[in-house]
Amino acid sequence: MKIVITGGPCSGKTTIINELKKRGYFTMEETARKIIIENIYSKNLNIENEALNFELNVYQKQIEKEKDLDKADDVYPHIVFLDRGCIDVRAYCQHLIGHIPKEIMNVKVKRYDAVIVLDRLPLIDDGLRRKTKEDAEIIHQQILQEYVNAGYTPIIIPIMSIKERLKNILEIINKIEHQTGYGLIIEKNPIEIV
Hints:
- The chain is α/β, with parallel strands linked by helices.
- Helices cover 47% and strands 11% of the residues.
- The chain has seven helices and six strands, in the order E-H-E-H-H-E-H-H-E-H-E-H-E.
- The protein has a six-stranded parallel sheet with strand order 2-3-1-4-5-6, sandwiched between helices.
- Strand 5, helix 7 and strand 6 form a beta-alpha-beta unit.
- Helix 3 (51-71) runs antiparallel to helix 4 (87-97) and helix 4 (87-97) crosses helix 6.
- The longest helix has 21 residues, at 51-71.
């Protein structure tokens, strides 16, 4: 089962992924963040000037990582939590370059068993983010819309403590596991957990 944890910049995705990892769950780190960190130290990347190439690179590396998961189903545990999915790249392309390249539109639509969207927290500058509060909100809404457009029913987790968010996520996963075929019934409206 592949579960995407997503949301706009500064929504707590990486914190939740790290907490899940501490609790023994298998996780996949955010591809874009890894590329940014590697390139910031080598000074090779200017995201604003090279947005299309950057997003294509993120997309290709994300797909490769997910294919590795698919090939090794017997090696990885039953549940894998992903810090973002490849559909997130669509939202970033819309925001940064104004359209979604055909290479990215061709993504296999039903890749994930569930998509969990974390509501945004206050924007914090971690040295990697180059977004305003307004940009972050626009990207958050675009991410949500792209998953809906791709046929998913995003499950929205509101702002609450890390412990409460984890509890809600694990309860959701438990419910999904007990459904036939491990999948959610696809609806076109996000489900909000309150």
